[in-house]
Amino acid sequence: MRHLLSTADLTRTQALRILDTAEEMTGVSAREVKKLPTLRGRTVVNLFFEDSTRTRVSFEAAAKRLSADVVNFSAKGSSVSKGESLKDTVQTLDAMGADAIVIRHGSSGAPAQLAASDWSEAAVVNAGDGTHEHPTQALLDALTLRRDWHAAHYGEASSPRGTDLTGMRVLIVGDVLHSRVARSNIWLLTTLGATVSLVAPGTLLPVGVESWPVTVHYSFDQALAAGPDAVIMLRVQAERMGGSFFPNAAEYARRWGLTEERLAVVNQLRLAETEAPALILHPGPMNRGVEISAAAADSAQSRITEQVTNGVSVRMAVLHLLLTGSRGHHDDDRSSL
């Protein structure tokens, strides 16, 4: 396995191998000494051209728990601010002995360009590129969903290893147009057998969304009436909006926000079918009171904190698989995970 650039490139076997490895890595966090010697002597570079808290810190924690040396690079205060190109920056880091480069970039396709170039021999992990993809976020979302899905069907005592999401109904809500998280989740969750639906204002849906493997709704209340097993709320990305995509925050919250009232309605529908309420996820950071209410974010069915915890395990698994050369029997693709 060489790079992780997109969930669209992952087969079901590859995706399950990452999730199963992440389950094993979860046990490390429960130890008194949270370390494995797996990547001792290796160097992981976090190359972030956009601001980040959760993803950067999560990758740093993951690499350190695998005993790798970590170099954190931020575009602010670096030679990038003086006009240095991506190529020159990467070649400089490569000359310092980078084994893996975790890159977040504002331009869609930047990680793929790096992986396809001869600028570096390092493994490349896409930590979010423009509005394109964010594969490790989708993987941690899948890990989070799979645990509850497996427990509901097979009991909490058994291991979820090898379990996919066949039959699960997932609703993704909000700013799909600007969301790399939504795109990665659509490809991955579909590969794992889930049925994915989208609901958003028409102005926040991408052109060509009808060709995606999803069902599109324009009414949040109608979409909730279908009784989804999980609801993934997306952040309204105001920093990527060059114009007005909806009247104001209050109107957005009224029509597209997961309010306390909507939470009660969907739970009533769910409890009529099953004992399990719908799971609530959010990639963060949250705009409380806009796309999600405090009552929903802090409810017992919210898995937002678990998402952050699972992010470390997933990123440990990705770095481990990329840098140790572990291969599955059915993985013949040497170009990417």
Structural write-up:
The structure is a single chain. The chain is an alpha/beta fold and 337 residues long. It folds into two domains: 7-133 and 309-324, Aspartate/ornithine carbamoyltransferase (Rossmann fold); 135-306, Rossmann fold (3-Layer(aba) Sandwich). The protein is 39% helix and 13% strand. It contains eleven helices and nine strands. It has helices at residues 12-29, 54-65, 86-95, 110-116, 135-154, 180-191, 220-225, 249-256, 260-273, 294-297, 304-324; strands at residues 43-48, 69-74, 100-105, 123-129, 169-173, 195-199, 215-217, 230-233, 279-281. The strands form two sheets. Strands 7-6-5-8-9 form a five-stranded parallel sheet. The chain has a four-stranded parallel sheet with strand order 2-1-3-4, with helices on both faces. Helix 1 packs across helix 5 and helix 5 packs across helix 11. It is globular. The N and C termini lie close together (5 Å). Residues 326-335 have low confidence and may be disordered.
